[in-house]
Design goal:
Length: about 70
């Protein structure tokens, strides 16, 4: 999931619907995401869970996505 977000340079508000798990596992997931995006060139904020149980983050766009590159 993280590599796909970085590779495709997905930006803006990103909402993830994780598989239902216990509270401790979901908390660890938020910590892992914050750690993984720490070295990202884009500014990424991991906000945590909404009341509906969705994981919310925002990411700024800094370059073209792999789909926009001319790889001929």
């Amino acid at each position: 999931m993280l590599s796909l977000i970085k590779l495709k340079n997905i930006s803006g508000k990103v909402v993830i619907d994780p598989v239902a798990s216990d509270h401790n596992t979901l908390r660890k997931l938020v910590g892992m995401l914050k750690n993984e995006f720490r070295d990202d060139l884009s500014i990424t904020n991991v906000y945590g869970y909404t009341r509906g149980g969705l994981l919310e983050l925002s990411r700024s766009r800094n370059d073209r996505s792999i789909d926009e590159l001319n790889l001929n």
